[in-house]
Amino acid sequence: MPGKTPDKEPVDNGGYRGGKDIVEKEKDEASSLKHKGKKPTKEGEEEMTVVVPPSKSSKRSSVPPNDADGDVAMEDSDKVDDGEGKVDPVAQTINDIKANFALLDRAVALFDARFTLRALRSISALRKRLTPDIISQVISETYLSSSAWEHVARRLLAAIGKQDVSLGRQPSSEMEVDSESKPSTKNGSKKESKDPIPEVDVFLGILIQVYLFDSRQYRQGAELSQYLAERVRLLNRRTLDSLAAKVYFYFSLFCEQLDPPGPSSQSATASLRPTLLAALRTAVLRKDIDTQAAVIVLLLRNYLSTSHIAQADLLVSHTQFPENAANNQVARFLYYLGRIRAIQLRYTEAHDHLTAATRKAPSSTCALGFSQTATKLLLVVELLMGDIPDRATFRQPAMEQALHPYFLLVQAVRVGDLENFEATIAEHADTFRRDHTYTLILRLRQNVIKTGIRMMSLSYSRISLRDICIRLHLGSEESAEYIVAKAIRDGVIEATLDRERGFMKSKEIGDVYATREPGEAFHDRIRACLALHDESVKAMRFPMNQHRLELKSAQEAREREREMAKEIQEGDLDEDDLGGDFEGM
């Protein structure tokens, strides 16, 4: 009978089961036959077994059951959501640190320093979450008590005061991610962990350096840095070059914070120079570009901190900064070179170096301090050259507050007001000393006087020396006469000096575009653009030996085609064996 139901109960397919008043008898029969895999037959016809694919609702593995009223219970799903939303920050930090170990392994296996640089870039995101407990837990899970590098692990743990931590501790179940996908032996046991590579040791040492520097433990940091620098030197691995540069960088920072500070010859900064010079010599012999660039920059910083300008100049003249160095190291080198040239009164070269340093400075907020420092020195050099900086430089949101004392200084120099200039120096002397520009700013007094004379030569066709003396607050007319004569000789103003009558007569200003000045300015801009293009081309990087792999694959393809063509000619292969038509070479 059509209304008769099958003997077996229909299989629950995850459909709607609530509300009996809306369920019809025909739908029950159709669904029961569908779940049985049989198609309803008419009279006189045989039954056909039909395979019905499961509906979308049956594929849902976590559909909650209905209650008596037909409503769906949501308690279990809420529990699942709450469990997935909570992430242990300690476990997350440990997993992030261990993720860098895989990058270091790939860097060693492929001999590609880009994976090491990726691991180093992650330090900025990890440094705020580093604690002695997290670092010690990573070390204990990475090293075994019977490992050959056990002494390295003990030395790293001693630097953070965790000597009693046991090695070879297994991670907890909460920290294991995708445990089912981990490799296992035939017996089902987990694969034995191997000893970590030396790159992992140095990377963990850098993390400890960062933690000690942030926690102001400079003495412990200097001792650890000395140990890491010696270990890097003894290992002599090219895959450690980028890590070694970072080790020496923090080594120098720790020594700068130790007592006695400053330009004292007994300071830790001065005692670090033999170590840096030995590292530079070794890096040049090993063609270690990263360490070479970093150590040259650190040595220049070291010499400038103790005011040894002559030694810094000798270092620049006797060494060659690597062309393929990182952009950050190039920017630092150009900044220190600009400072040296500014102190040596070579303002044009200093201006070129500082301009290139500000252009190469990273645009991120983490490098804002470097951009501000380089811009401050660049403004002072421009004033010493007799130029007035653009006002838009002081209107940048990130620079406005830091450059405010220099903005007042530029206003005094632009107008030629000697009294306002001296008042500005007296008010912001501490800021200028902290920026290491105070001695250069004191040289601007003659520039202020020259600017005042230039303004008066443009305003008056003839002015007496007495009026110049009064306006510039000079002591006597003889001083005014000397200053005016020097300005005429230097080409600051176009005028003549009448000593008998005691006045200065300005010449008529001709057409500026008839001179060579516009052409020279245009030539400088073109030269800067070409230099930027050349540096951009040099900075491009490509995968190593990629062209060789392409040539090898193409050669193998041609060999296969020759073999197949030869076999066809000999009758060993047919076109059917090739899977279709074959076109000869």
From TrEMBL:
Family: Belongs to the proteasome subunit S3 family.
Compositional bias of kind Basic and acidic residues: 1-11, 18-32, 76-86, 179-195, 554-569
Biased composition (Acidic residues): 570-585
SUPFAM superfamilies xref list: Winged helix' DNA-binding domain (SSF46785)
Keywords: Proteasome
Keyword Amino-acid biosynthesis found: no
Keyword Membrane: no
Pfam families on file: PCI, Rpn3_C, TPR_PSMD3_N
Segments of skewed composition (Low complexity): 50-65
Region named Disordered: 1-86, 167-195, 554-585
PANTHER family tied to this protein: 26S PROTEASOME NON-ATPASE REGULATORY SUBUNIT 3 (PTHR10758:SF2), 26S PROTEASOME NON-ATPASE REGULATORY SUBUNIT 3/COP9 SIGNALOSOME COMPLEX SUBUNIT 3 (PTHR10758)
Organism: Phialemonium thermophilum
Domain named PCI: residues: 331-511
Full protein name: PCI domain-containing protein
